[in-house]
Amino acid sequence: MTKPHLLLIAALPPWFHQELEQRFEVHGPFEGAAAEAFWAGQGAQVRAVVTTGSHGVANAVLDALPGLEIVSAYGVGVDQIDLPHAKARGVTVTNTPDVLTDDVADLAIALTLAVQRRIAANDRFVRDGRWESGERVPLGRKVSGSRVGILGLGRIGRAIARRFEGFTDQIRYHSRNPVEGAPYPYEASAESLAAYADILVVATSGGPEARRLVDAEVLAALGAQGVLINISRGAVVDQDALVSALAEGKLAGAGLDVFEDEPNTPHALWAMEQVVLQPHQGSATEETRRAMGERVLQNLDAWLAGREPPDRVV
């Protein structure tokens, strides 16, 4: 039986690629002129696309694949896919919710500890020989008892809040609407949440409505003793305002796993000892990456069998 054709937008683990090849004629990933040549020559044959949350699928790609039926995202984020456009084209979009919640929440706590207790900075302090030479060790700040603001109380936001309960009982949140049954006080705006918090954790979903939700005013409300942790999407934070606040001492520190133009990061952040940077690795454990791949395969298998994919977004 002829296998359906699938376009891979980004490189994924070898085991996953092998699983795809058992089910599909796999093409890609392509870049530049090679991609355009493929669309022109074989684009009409493609019925399925697999991408990642950070890569998404451009509308130009969707429009170059007239036979496309499904886009399966290896990740929970689908803000790099124009969902209304996909829906109008009759294209099903799926993602991989739940499986990465724990890892991303764990990283939020790790970044908080790394910033407040200067873990990365003091690692460099030892390796550079500064401790051995008798230089005074810089002090960090306590996490226990801190006031924590969670911006976005979805699956990941709730998981982060539960973890912070081991450190403090002073937890509040803001989301588009109050969450029924949430055990934490609700703040009516991102700015009022920042004014409350010592540590502001950005866990909201992405998308146009969340773009630069954390702007200069929110950062000013967080203040010179405040710390920003972002495991959400880079575009949720006004990156220029963040760099300025850190450089001018108007913010105490930041732990960042996401950036506005990945993999590019503001070089001004590289030299800042009070900033901890990660290369968008919230879900980057062997166990979770395999679970994500298996979830993509479950969605594709359901589609191949004519069933409703379990993680359909549109």
UniProtKB/TrEMBL annotation:
Q: Specify whether RNA-binding is a keyword of the entry.
A: no
Q: Where are the transmembrane segments?
A: none
What are the residue boundaries of the D-isomer specific 2-hydroxyacid dehydrogenase catalytic domain, all occurrences included?
A: 44-313
* Keywords carried by this UniProt record: NAD, NADP, Oxidoreductase
Query: Where would I find the D-isomer specific 2-hydroxyacid dehydrogenase NAD-binding domain in this sequence?
Result: 109-282
Asked if the keyword NADP belongs to this entry, the reply reads yes
Query: One Gene Ontology cellular component annotation?
Result: cytosol
Entries under InterPro entries matching the protein: D-isomer_2-hydroxyacid_DH, D-isomer_2_OHA_DH_cat_dom, D-isomer_DH_CS1, D-isomer_DH_NAD-bd, NAD(P)-bd_dom_sf
Which CDD domains does this chain map to?
HPPR
Write out the GO MF terms.
glyoxylate reductase (NADPH) activity; hydroxypyruvate reductase [NAD(P)H] activity; NAD binding
Regarding protein family, the annotation reads: Belongs to the D-isomer specific 2-hydroxyacid dehydrogenase family.
- The molecule here is called 2-hydroxyacid dehydrogenase
What organism does the record attribute this protein to?
Answer: Phenylobacterium deserti
